[in-house]
Specification:
Layout (H helix, E strand, L loop, with lengths): L2 H22 L2 H8 E8 L6 E7 L15 E6 L5 E7 L8 E3 L3 E4 L3 E4 L5
Antiparallel strand pairs: 1-2, 2-3, 3-4, 5-6, 6-7
């Protein structure tokens, strides 16, 4: 191969890698390819529930660090319709879920009414 061809090929590979990395950070693509269900939290006072998803990582994690991963949480009603959705910086922030008849709250993460309005 000639030097200009090698340089062009190197730039093309680098450009493709950057394009893939950018696409994987676009939320709909990231959720479709790189999210796994982490846990489901059911309301004790209504038929609503939260589903927590974590994003997978290509890098190995040390034991106990899965809570440090980012993800997102979705609120569903009893018919399985998604009502709300929000990104979460660290999954370990999702604890102490407070359910009432009209709302669900997680300190520093979310405070949602349980109405069926998106």
């Amino acid at each position: 191969m000639t030097k200009p061809l090698v340089k062009w090929l190197a730039f093309a590979i680098i450009g493709l890698a950057i394009a893939i990395a950018t696409a994987l950070n676009f939320p709909p693509i990231k959720r479709a390819c790189c999210a796994l269900e982490f846990q489901t939290l059911h309301s004790p006072v209504s038929d609503h529930y939260l589903v927590v998803y974590r994003y997978t990582t290509l890098l190995p994690l040390t034991p106990g660090n899965s809570g440090d991963l980012p993800g997102y949480v979705q609120l569903y009603n009893g018919q399985g319709e998604r009502l709300r959705e929000q990104d979460v910086e660290m999954l370990q922030l999702i604890r102490d879920v407070h359910w009432t008849d009209n709302s669900v709250a997680i300190k520093f993460v979310l405070d949602w009414p349980l109405s069926d309005v998106k």
